Amino acid sequence: MSRQTTPLGRPRDPELDEKLMTAALLEYARLGWGAFTMQGVARRAGVGKSALYLRWANKEQLLLDSVESVALTLRVNVDTGSLTGDLTALATALLEHFLDPIGWATLRITIDVTADFIDLQPFQQRIVKSLRTAATGAFSRAVARGEMSPNTAHEPLIESLFGAVLMHTLSRTQQERDHARAYPSEHIGPLVEVIVRSARPMKK
């Protein structure tokens, strides 16, 4: 799927492009792939379908550009000086990502790809890679600081962290999700502590 080019003589409007791509992700977050249409995106954005088709040939290209340009915002790889601090920063960003409709759209894409509903494997690979990179860096620094044994496998810890934040998000009521947006540390702290305890070297 190649990026759609703009016809000669018709300059792109970056603000309108972003508005359309944001509308696409919000529409996907609400409906998923089965009900995702160019007409629905145009209606949500308050434009005619021609505004979309002048930029993208089909909904696959629109979604690809939307993910690449708008949705992949989780880039947290901060060295706080401790594994607890690093994972807290990452888990907080992940929680906020899942609580945001655009972040939720990326999750729906990965689920739809896994279930073979859509052939959007490049989307899933980009999304998963962006989520794993920060966690791998946090655990690698923890090994260098002696907070974690070099023999401890990173992958189960990464999956445990992401899974815990995801399940926490899914199991909250609307009122609890609003509380999580306002006070993320209260929700993240206990989850991170479990991962950190699992990663600590065993005492001899």
SSE arrangement:
Blueprint: H1 14-31, H2 38-45, H3 49-53, H4 59-71, H5 83-99, H6 101-114, H7 121-145, H8 154-170, H9 174-182, H10 184-199
Brief overview:
The chain contains 10 helices and no strands. It is an all-alpha fold and 204 residues long.
Task: Kindly describe this structure.
There is one protein chain. The protein is mainly α and 204 residues long. The chain has two domains: 57 residues, Homeodomain-like (Arc Repressor Mutant, subunit A, Orthogonal Bundle); 126 residues, Tetracycline Repressor, domain 2 (Orthogonal Bundle). It has ten helices and no strands. α1 crosses α6 and α5 packs across α10.
Number of β-strand runs: 0
Mean pLDDT: 84
- Helix content bin: 55-70%
CATH architecture of the largest domain: Orthogonal Bundle
Number of domains: 2
Q: Treating each run of at least 4 consecutive H or I residues as one helix, how many helices?
A: 10
Give a quick set of tags describing it.
204 residues; mainly alpha; Arc Repressor Mutant, subunit A; Tetracycline Repressor, domain 2; 2 domains; 10 helices; 70% helix
